């Protein structure tokens, strides 16, 4: 099967080790090909490599599980080891380090308190926090947990998960009616961000945006501020702050919802 994507850059004298360069370029090309994979001839054409040399490179990658060969088509596809490497890199325990610069950038852009959280069971676990120059006393702390259903962070994450009604009911628990949570998640999914207004602490409101990888939320970032400041106009400013400050600081493969990047906005969820 012929790939429709653009040919990858070929190896050249600029590489300090051509054999490694060949392997990396092959992995990059196969990652773009998806489950269909690529034949040896197609891959060699894309990379501008000799088929015999490329075959040896692919054999080494197969030996380590980074490449598999479809027994029916003969096409080469990414192997389980490549997926495991990516999953380990983006594991929850690594996210605070990978995303800290994005959290800092957002806090500076918005001049507000910013949190990073990951879903842990039915709760959000707060894994990073950056405070603005101006002081704001809130209940949050790194390592603390709150029900996902009642936090902007949790709603942002849940809004981009494929949940059936039974799952939503479990997340809602005794915290809120299932119907209300369904409505909140639908609105958040449409607008790209979620909010909560004084549901966890009197006088404090939050706006959160999920961080996606292959369409699945891996975490969320929230901006926390006094409720009196969180007007619809301020919400629009904060959405713009996400779009302006965050993308450049995200690791490859993690991105914001299209609605945020495109600058779309809507009345507060």
Automatic annotation (TrEMBL):
<dbReference type="InterPro" id="IPR029016">
    <property type="entry name" value="GAF-like_dom_sf"/>
</dbReference>
<dbReference type="GO" id="GO:0045892">
    <property type="term" value="P:negative regulation of DNA-templated transcription"/>
</dbReference>
<keyword id="KW-0238">DNA-binding</keyword>
<feature type="domain" description="IclR-ED">
    <location>
        <begin position="81"/>
        <end position="256"/>
    </location>
</feature>
<dbReference type="InterPro" id="IPR036390">
    <property type="entry name" value="WH_DNA-bd_sf"/>
</dbReference>
<dbReference type="Pfam" id="PF09339">
    <property type="entry name" value="HTH_IclR"/>
</dbReference>
<dbReference type="InterPro" id="IPR050707">
    <property type="entry name" value="HTH_MetabolicPath_Reg"/>
</dbReference>
<dbReference type="InterPro" id="IPR014757">
    <property type="entry name" value="Tscrpt_reg_IclR_C"/>
</dbReference>
<protein>
    <submittedName>
        <fullName>IclR family transcriptional regulator</fullName>
    </submittedName>
</protein>
<dbReference type="GO" id="GO:0003677">
    <property type="term" value="F:DNA binding"/>
</dbReference>
<keyword id="KW-0804">Transcription</keyword>
<dbReference type="GO" id="GO:0003700">
    <property type="term" value="F:DNA-binding transcription factor activity"/>
</dbReference>
<feature type="domain" description="HTH iclR-type">
    <location>
        <begin position="17"/>
        <end position="80"/>
    </location>
</feature>
<dbReference type="InterPro" id="IPR036388">
    <property type="entry name" value="WH-like_DNA-bd_sf"/>
</dbReference>
<keyword id="KW-0805">Transcription regulation</keyword>
<dbReference type="Pfam" id="PF01614">
    <property type="entry name" value="IclR_C"/>
</dbReference>
<dbReference type="InterPro" id="IPR005471">
    <property type="entry name" value="Tscrpt_reg_IclR_N"/>
</dbReference>
